[in-house]
From TrEMBL:
This is UDP-glucose 4-epimerase. It comes from Streptomyces globisporus. The keyword Flavoprotein does not apply. Keywords: Carbohydrate metabolism, Galactose metabolism, Isomerase, NAD. The keyword Isomerase applies. Gene3D superfamilies: NAD(P)-binding Rossmann-like Domain (3.40.50.720), UDP-galactose 4-epimerase, domain 1 (3.90.25.10).
Amino acid sequence: MNAPSTILVTGGAGFIGSHACAELLDHGYELIVVDNYSNSTPQVFARVERIAGRFVGTVYELDIRDRHALSAVFDRHSVDAVVHFAALKAVGESTRMPVEYYDTNVGGTTTLLRAMHEHGVRHLVFSSSCSLYGDGDGGPLSEGAPVRPTNPYAASKAACEKILADVCRRVPGFTVLSLRYFNPVGAHPSGLLGEEPCGTPDNLMPYLAQVAIGKLDRLHVFGDDWATPDGTAVRDYLHVMDTVEAHRIALEHLGDSPGMHEYNLGVGKGSSVLEVAAAFGEACGRPIPYDIAPRRPGDVRELVADATAVARDWGWRPTRNLADMCRDAWRFQRLNPSGHAGSARQADRKK
Ligand code: NAD
Ligand code: WQD
């Protein structure tokens, strides 16, 4: 089957969504984008257009929980498939605002499913998360590992997967490719798109970028007493460009076999906090100052993907390494002191 050509992208203004829009436009897809800008800005689309050299498509400011608004989008456009990024994603915040997380992530997904059903759209690529594996089991995690969420964010993703599997069982031809990302980081190599957290970053890579630029004083390494080679926790960092290439390839596989299919997206190799900090120091040209702080509540020792299934089924393998991730994250930080809303300093158009 040919890959679908008109794609509805939810959350297309966000970190991964904006990179995905650039990638899909570059490969000839027509896009319809919806976002409520709760964690992003519409200014990102001018940058996506600069990269792609074409219009992004029709963009709607709407909340995916707004059933009528979403249904009207499907009325107006003939959508072949949906790539569903829109969600709330901060683990710590989810413990303080669980209802908001379930409402947006689960309620948003059921509203989307309703609109898809009413309009006969049966192909979905879903943003899932390694966080649903909970503490993991110490080794590389395959898709068959137990789903044991330990916070409302992760539980919301697990609930979505359960709902999606039920829909696939019930609706003939319905296909969901649920991509369980490990730790997507980095930025577009043009310096035009990147990760722009609100306030002080929770996540390691944007925190390092702000230390490197001097906005933050030093990195606080959350624990050096884990049972790992250097005592700091290990994660599977994946370049956002590899992440979105996997989505483009997923679209080409939506017609392979109906039903629900889960895939890990990771490199399959872990890096410790100190290894990432050292790699960032190399990228920005000076060592990153750090101190050792207590473990962060809820953190786990190691989360690394067994990413062999996606390589086997689709031939997708990440091609960028930790140095590439740090170089690109640093370029975005350096060129965009005011984030996507400002004008990028000397960012170039080529990828
Ligand atoms: P992001 O916050 O940058 O992007 C999400 C986008 O969705 C934002 O533009 C936001 O404004 C929009 N949005 C949120 N709620 C909405 C609503 N109710 N209606 C319409 N739009 C809404 O996050 P991201 O890092 O790009 O993550 C994208 C997806 O990938 C999310 O589903 C997230 O849970 C998942 N994910 C992210 C990571 C990661 O580390 N970044 C890891 C695993 C999974
Ligand atoms: C990485 C490592 C920290 C900040 C999160 C979500 C997960 C998924 C990916 C969405 C950890 C350490 C961090 C700092 C530190 N997102 N660290 N100092 O926690 O692996 O995963 O993003 O689905 O659900 O939980 O990513 O970048 O926050 O942390 O030492 O200032 O860096 O302890 O070991 P995490 P992270």
